[in-house]
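Q: My labmate handed me this sequence with no annotations at all. I'd like to see what the chain might look like in three dimensions before we decide whether it's worth expressing. Could you predict it?
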Amino acid sequence: MPLDLPSRPRRNRKSAAVRAFVREADLAPSRLVLPLFIREEEGTQAIATMPGVSRLGPDAVEAEVEGALAEGITTVILFPLVPEARKTKRAEEALDPDGLVPRTIRRLKGRWPDLVICTDVALDPYSSDGHDGLVDADGRILNDETVEVLCDQALMQAEAGADIVAPSDMMDGRIGAIRDALDAAGHTGVSILAYTAKYASAFYGPFRDALDSAPRAGDKKTYQMDPANAREALRELGLDEAEGADLVMVKPAGPYLDVIRLVREATALPVAAYQVSGEYAMLRFAAQHGALDERRAVLEALLGIRRAGADMILTYYARAAARWLTERPA
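A: Here is what I predict for the chain of 330 residues:
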């Protein structure tokens, strides 16, 4: 005999068609951003801590972008592998208009003008200290002096054709200073994606392996956020909004879904989230050892980030996820 129930939620799950029209969060290739590790030499170089991800030479970058566009991904973000011999205390390589990043931007834009190219604004790939900012003799990270360099870096990238500059350094005041510098130089159409809540996380390890960009001394806890704090993200958000950010980001994504939700509810700006290298590695290694169904687990993790409030997701799984999404049963 049927139970006398006032409501039966299962009625909204009874078929693929019903599940589709009551689904609360969508996930599509156009919401995914593909991070690319770029290098000077041709060919590819595997990254041991990120199986399936490689450092890409110029031709390989083009092949990767061509594949991503065919799969519905419209945006990439570039991270350069800088030879150790060109890393310096003042990170001068970050300002070279003929450096790896601007050359790559010009090459990609020359072939795909509508490709959205995002660039990282920070000094750690170029610094012999491995920090996002300039370091004084006592090991302190110099905030205001670093912001001056970041403005020049962002200008150089904008002049090369970047659509979005993404300051990942977590220096105070850099969003406003970069906005002013871009506007004064006539780059009013270049967007700023602020790394608003970037935590001092243990999940960045494989990324630092990929770029050889780990701090040579100390850590990043004096400028990246404390993982214990969520409300502090709203303070950072208010500052970034006031300074002219066009988009805001939470990084990492998976361990900080609560922060993504807080930020989403507090702003009308688009919210990005970065499923970082350690998150990718956990899923990838677990799948390789048979602990997870990779496709189902990855799409579930990305959907969770989207459900928390992210409008766009930076993920090393972007191409695989785009393919799976077009094939996935409802």
